[in-house]
Write a structure and sequence with these properties.
It is a single chain. Helices cover 35% and strands 20% of the residues. By secondary structure, the chain is of the alpha/beta class. The protein folds into 2 domains: 137 residues, Rossmann fold (3-Layer(aba) Sandwich), CATH 3.40.50; 76 residues, SIR2/SIRT2 'Small Domain' (2-Layer Sandwich). The strands form 2 sheets. It has a 6-stranded parallel β-sheet with strand order 3-2-1-7-8-9, sandwiched between helices. Helix 5 packs parallel to helix 9. It is globular. It starts with a strand and ends with a helix. Bound molecules: ligand BJW. Ligand BJW binds next to helix 1. It is an enzyme of class 2 (transferase).
């Protein structure tokens, strides 16, 4: 059985109805990135930032995991601890599909963090817009990503690395394919169009078609 590391980005949730970040209908359309996705933006205007994330959090109640999320949960059920899922997404669709071995490296929309103490609280509804004690538990630009040590360990042991629905524009996730490759893994990308990163194989097409096909191929081989 191979050790598999899967990295997902917003493209895997697009067919569930959630916006990706970059592109014409991107999530940040109408907002400057520095206003809603940086600690400086939150310090300057917490009302705007809470309103932005409250709207995203509400949207989560309206969407469901798709065939790609379910296929990855099925792969984990077959491989157990030999599969690790690293997601850049802050939605909870992998968890709702049944994946459990997850590093949510950019945080989670359904968790808020106390700014003074660091305490985490599960939170599925609106935060009062004027609240300045609690912030979304998401990783903004310039902040340290979550669980990087675990990810580094998993990449070092990987036989197969698969990146799904990510543009590869954001550091440090855009380094993972090269790290896995250097450790001896085969690298595969699934995307509507190839990103600018180097992979051994590129599977072009929607995640809801390509991910179940890849998982079926892996399970047939193992
Ligand atoms: C489909 C599909 C379908 C569509 N099927 N595919 C210069 C200045 C300042 C900082 C930097 C700098 N240069 C580099 C940096 C570092 C910075 C960075 O990378 N910036 C670049 C953008 C320039 N990175 C950071 O700051 C990170 N932290 C860090 O480096 O810390 C260092 C540190 C160390 C020690 C102490 C302190 C610090 C943190 C990055 C945090 C990113 N956070 C965000 C926002 C989260 C909150 C929110 O939701 O608002 O995370 S940014 C945003 O981008 C989000 C995503 O997770 C991330 C990646 O985007 P993703 O998922 O790839 O989406 P898209 O839209 O780009 O791509 C979608 C893809 O899907 C496309 O390819 C489509 O084709 C595809 N697709 N439909 C298959 N159906």
């Amino acid at each position: 059985m191979p050790n598999v590391v899967v990295l997902t980005g917003s493209g895997i949730s697009a067919e569930s109805g959630l916006s990706t970040f970059r592109g014409p209908d991107g999530l940040w359309e109408g907002h400057r990135v520095q206003d809603v996705a940086t600690p400086e933006g939150f310090a300057a205007n917490p009302v705007l930032v809470h309103r932005f994330y409250n709207r995203l959090r509400r949207r989560l109640h309206e969407v469901e995991p798709n065939a790609a999320h379910h296929a990855l949960a099925k792969l984990e059920a077959a491989l157990g601890h030999q599969m690790h899922l690293v997601t850049q997404n802050i939605d909870d669709l992998h968890q709702r599909a049944g994946s459990t071995q997850i590093t949510a490296m950019h945080g989670e929309l359904n968790t808020i963090r106390n700014i003074a103490t660091g305490q985490l609280l599960s939170w599925t509804h609106d935060v009062v817009e004027t609240d300045q004690q609690w912030r979304p538990h998401v990783v903004w630009f310039g902040e340290r990503t979550i669980g990087l040590e675990t990810v580094a360990e998993k990449l070092a042991q990987a036989d197969l690395f698969v990146a799904i629905g990510t543009s590869g524009t954001v550091y440090p996730a855009n380094q993972f394919a090269a790290i896995a490759k250097a450790a001896g893994a085969t690298t595969v990308e699934i995307n509507l169009k190839p990103s600018e990163l180097a992979f051994d194989q590129t599977w072009i097409g929607p995640a809801t078609e390509q991910v179940p096909a890849l998982v079926d191929a892996l399970l047939k081989d193992s």
